[in-house]
Amino acid sequence: MKRICVYCGSNTGKDKDYANAARELAEVLVQSDIGLVYGGSSKGIMGLLADAVLVDGGAVEGVMPKSLLEKEVAHDGLTEMHIVESMHARKSMMAVLSDGFIALPGGYGTLEEIVEILTWAQLQFHEKPCGLLNVNGYFNHLLSYLDHAEAEGFLHAAHRAMLQVSKKPADLIRRFESYIPPNIEKWQ
């Protein structure tokens, strides 16, 4: 793995463990010689994660649509910043640049991004691992929903199992390195 895309909040959240998890993930990425791809903001968990990777000597690529440059306050110290036309272009570029995808705690955008990239994997548009860094059970309700969707026949067990989940960044990266995508189509 050369680069991992991390989806996360442009706010820091209330629990200091979210920021601590971002710093720990940054350390693991740099130690594993894996670059960071993310949304390009200097704010919230996004900015904290990018800063931590940069301070530790890692590479960081940001991808931001023109319309968010001023609103999100683009990070000006990145290894590389890609400016794109739209959110769709942002997500597409992040997917192309990355070998895997991790969601840290965040809001609507974080949820939308990880669910979309997971759906792309389900549809076999890519075979890259997708995971949640489940800091203090942040994603437990989402995981319960996915279990319910599987139980109700809306999600195949093999597709439910695609989503890697861990409380520890190093464990999640290990899972990514040995990830084998399911060999089953969505409609089976």
| Average of per-residue pLDDT values | 95
Question: Terminal Cα separation, in Å?
Answer: 30 Å
Here the CATH topology equals Rossmann fold
Question: How many whole angstroms does the radius of gyration measure?
Answer: 16 Å
Number of distinct beta strands: 7
Binned strand content:
15-25%
Largest beta sheet: strand ordering: 4-3-2-1-5-6-7
Shape by Cα distribution = globular
CATH top level class name: Alpha Beta
Helix residue percentage: 40-55%
CATH architecture verdict:
3-Layer(aba) Sandwich
Order of helices and strands: EHEHEEHEHEHHEH
Biggest β-sheet strands, sense, barrel: 7 strands, parallel
User: Helical region count?
Assistant: 7
Q: What structural category arises from helix and sheet content?
A: alpha/beta
Structural domain count: 1
Any low-confidence stretches, pLDDT <50, length ≥5?
A: none
